[in-house]
């Protein structure tokens, strides 16, 4: 019960410079069995995406103020850990919940759902810049989109 054909590498995986023993453009795992994390290219690809993603956010005059005084290296490590978990690359996430993490930004800095949409737009632009296939971008949006209700909810989710 194996896969008869190898899966093509994602654009993110290729952009992140992942190298392996499999033939050029192929991976050894059946695509139906891969997590979204693996389809995107694994750790190097997620780290590359987070780097570009935060460069876009920090260049955005409407979003940059939310990160004033934040250790961005630490923030980026947290984001890599969260995305690794959210996309199926880790069984557990050790960070704080999304509501708790964003509550101060909402109450003290005026974070609104419109800002979430802007951040999500930067994530999509990052994935597109990295050459990620549209079906995988759509899958990422399907994972990230529902977190809006958690962040701006009442903390019970």
TrEMBL record:
Report whether Heme shows up as a keyword of the record: yes
Alphabetical list of SUPFAM superfamilies matching this protein: Globin-like
Identify one Pfam family in the record: Bac_globin
CDD domains per UniProt: TrHb1_N (cd00454)
Please give the superkingdom of this protein's source: Eukaryota
For this protein, the record's InterPro entries field holds: Globin-like_sf, Globin/Proto, Hemoglobin_trunc
UniProt keyword list = Heme, Iron, Metal-binding, Transport
- Molecular function per GO: heme binding; metal ion binding; oxygen binding
Write out the ranges of the annotated region (Disordered): 1-25
Q: What is this protein called?
A: Group 1 truncated hemoglobin glbN
Provide the species name: Tetrabaena socialis
